[in-house]
Amino acid sequence: MPERIYNFSPGPGTMPQEVLAQAAKDIVNFNDKGIGLIEMSHRSKEFMAVTDEAESLLRELLDIPANYKVLFMQGGASSQFAFVPMNLLAPGQTATYLNTGVWAKKAIKEAELFGDIKVAYSSADSTYNHVPKDSDYTVDPASEFLYLVSNNTIYGTQFHEFPKTDKMLVCDMSSDILSRPLDISRFGIIFAGAQKNMGPAGVTIAIVREDLLNRAPATVPTMFRYKTHADKGSMFNTPPCFGIYCVGLVLKWLKKQGGVKGMEKLNQEKAALLYAAIDSSEFYRGHAQVDSRSPMNVTFNLPTPELEAQFVKEATTVGLDGLKGHRSVGGCRASIYNAFPKQGVIDLVAFMQEFEKKNS
Ligand SMILES: *Cc1c(COP(=O)(O)O)cnc(C)c1O
After folding, report:
1. What residue's CA is closest to ligand 1, atom 7?
2. How confident is the model at residue 328 (pLDDT cuts 50, 70, 90)?
3. Which of 89, 268, 279, 322 could link 9 by a cystine bridge, Cβ 3.0 to 4.6 Å?
4. Looking at the predicted structure, is the pLDDT value of residue 3 above 90?
5. Which CATH architecture has domain 18-256?
C-alpha cells in the first residue's frame, strides 16, 4: 500500500495534502502561540484574523461583489434547503425549482413547507442523467427566485451554463463551488457545504445578497435568519472554527494553483482523461448524457453489477479508493474535486484498461 492512497470519495472529499499537514501542526500549536487552534476563543485576535482572511480570500477568488455577505454557518447544505425558503418566501409566495436529483428533491420538500413551489422540470424518469436546457421549462412569472443545483453529485451532471432568466437564481453549489469562474451577480444566494470542494465537514458557506437579509417573516427564529449571522460577521454564536480555518488554508492553496481559472483548466483536463477512457470502450458506459457531464463526479457502469463490485474491490487494493457509485444509480463514481491529483486520474484510467482486458 502506498503511503497516501487516491481518494475518490464523493464527500467528505480529498483535501490538499499540504493543508492536512499544516492543520495537523496548528491543531496542537497555532502559530507558535502555545495554544491549539481548536481550543482558542473564536473572539480572540488570532482567530478573528483567521476568519477575516478566509472571507477575503473567498471574495477575491470568486470575485464576490461588495453587496454580498459571506457567511460561515453550520447545519450543512441540508439546513440551507430550509434556510432559503424560510428567509425568502412569505406564505403564499412562489418559487420555481428544477428537480435534477436527490439534493434538489430534498430542497423542494423543505421549500414546500414555506411557499407555493413550482417544479418546472424533472429528469427523474431518466435517473437524472441530464440537466435541462432553458428551453425545456418555463419559470413561473410570479416566482421570487429560480432554484437549481449546479452540480448533481450523485448522478454526475452539471449545468455548464446557468439558466438565463430575469429571475434571481438561488443555487446549491456544494459539489462544484470554486471549480470554475462565476458571475455572482446573477445569484441571490449561493450556498455550499465545505466537505466536497472546500474543506472539512462542519462549515457551510452562504453568499447572500444584502438586500435579501430583511425579507424573513417575523416568525423566523433568530438563529435561522441570515441577517443574524450577517450582522455579527458569522460570530453571533460560536462558529465552526476548525472548518473556517481549513477553508482558509484550502483557499490559499487554490490561489497558488492559479485561482478558479487555473482550477477550471485542471478540472477539464482531469475529466477529459476519464471521459475519453469511457467513450473509447464498449465495456464502460457513462451514466450522464454527454452535454450534461460533470467534471467533478464521473459516473459510469460496467456490463454487470458483479463486475462493478469486483472493479471497486480490486481498485481499492491498488490504492484507488471510494469508487462505488451511489446506491440510487449503482455502478461506479469517481469524484475528482479540485484537490484530487491528476496522477490519480491517470492511474485510474490505466487500471480501467487493465481491468477491461482481464474481464471482457
Ligand atoms: C453533499 C450534498 C448536499 C448535502 O450536504 P450536507 O452538508 O451533508 O447537508 C447537498 N447538496 C449537494 C449538491 C451535495 O453534493
Report:
1. 76
2. confident
3. 322
4. no
5. 3-Layer(aba) Sandwich (3.40)
What is the residue-wise DSSP string for 154-181? TTTEE-SS----SSEEEEE-TTTTTSS-
**Cis ω for the linkage preceding 91 (within 30 of 0):** no
Alpha-carbon separation of residue 35 from 44, 150, 303, 315 (angstroms)? 12, 40, 55, 41
Report yes or no on whether pTM surpasses 0.90: yes
Integer-rounded Cα Rg, in Å, for the chain is: 21
In order of 221, 226, 259, the CA distances from 103 in angstroms are 24, 21, 27
Domain with CATH 3.40.640.10 in the chain: 18-256
User: Each residue of 180-191: pLDDT tens digit?
Assistant: 999 999 999 999
Nearest-angstrom CA–CA distance, 135 and 127: 20
Give 255-281 pLDDT, tens digit per residue: 999 999 999 999 999 999 999 999 999
The contacts of residue 333 (CB under 8 Å, 6+ apart) are: 8, 10, 154, 156, 297, 298, 299, 300, 323, 324, 325, 326
Smallest CA-to-CA distance from 322 within 2, 8, 4, 5 is with 8
Whether 175 lines ligand 1, by a CB cut-off of 6 Å, is yes
Residue 97 confidence (pLDDT)? 98
149 lines ligand 1 (CB under 6 A): yes
32-67 pLDDT, tens per residue?
Answer: 999 999 999 999 999 999 999 999 999 999 999 999
Verify whether residue 172 is a known catalytic residue. yes
pLDDT at 2: 54
Topology (CATH) of 258-359? Aspartate Aminotransferase, domain 1 (3.90.1150)
Task: State the amino acid at position 249 in one-letter form.
Answer: L
Interval between CA 112 and ligand 1 midpoint (Å): 19
Q: Could you give the CA distance from residue 169 to residue 188 in angstroms, rounded to a whole number?
A: 6
153 pocket-lining for ligand 1 (C-beta < 6 Å): yes
Ligand 1 centroid to Cα of residue 152, in Å, is 10
Q: Do residues 136 and 279 touch, judged by C-beta distance below 8 A? A: no
